[in-house]
Amino acid sequence: MFTGIIESIGSIRALTPKGGDVRVHVETGKLDLSDVKLGDSIAVNGVCLTAVELPGNGFLADVSRETLDCTAMNDLKSGSPVNLEKALTPTTRLGGHLVSGHVDGVGEVVSRTDNARAVEFRIRAPKELAKYIAHKGSITVDGTSLTVNAVDGAEFLLTIIPHTLSETIMASYRPGRRVNLEVDLLARYLERLLLGDKAAEPASVGNITESFLAANGYLKS
Hints:
Layout: E1 8-18, E2 21-27, E3 41-44, E4 47-53, E5 58-63, H1 65-70, E6 81-86, E7 105-115, E8 118-124, E9 138-141, E10 144-147, E11 150-152, E12 155-160, H2 162-167, E13 178-183, H3 185-194, H4 203-206, H5 210-215
Antiparallel strand pairs: 1-2, 1-6, 2-5, 3-4, 3-6, 4-5, 7-8, 7-13, 8-12, 9-10, 9-13, 11-12
């Protein structure tokens, strides 16, 4: 688990094909690795990876084909900057929100607009994730815990303050950029909870629909 508070901007040193997937070498910049052991988790642009080697200047991790297919990791190349966060501990200050490091989908930066010293980004999420994104709710973008300022269909607006711009890779975002998205865990669990006993039924039967919500008293006529 993570908090979505980025600890360091690192960079990709190498991406090496290995047995059908990829081994990535990440240089970790100012990230303190003194308490990191082999097998520990580190989030790279919001993707939870397992350290399999610790050469001293960073770590190496294996990226599965599934992860490559479901995230924007395929867009990375040698020299690409990345957001880094070590897994939280029981004494970690929870400054963001609970983040699993399991990416739900890939979004796209639609626009970038200056707003005084802040920058506003409009991001388009995959349609299937739109129902989990709420005004003033939390969302994780490339591992960064952020507050949604407005929602319009599958698009949402973020206002990024100067500190966040300087401490993450968001300063480099331009329209067309693909970003990893993880929706709020609470929204995921709430959807499942609303199914009640139907959660044990096959997905084709148990999906929440408008008619299901109306039949169970969640919508007023």
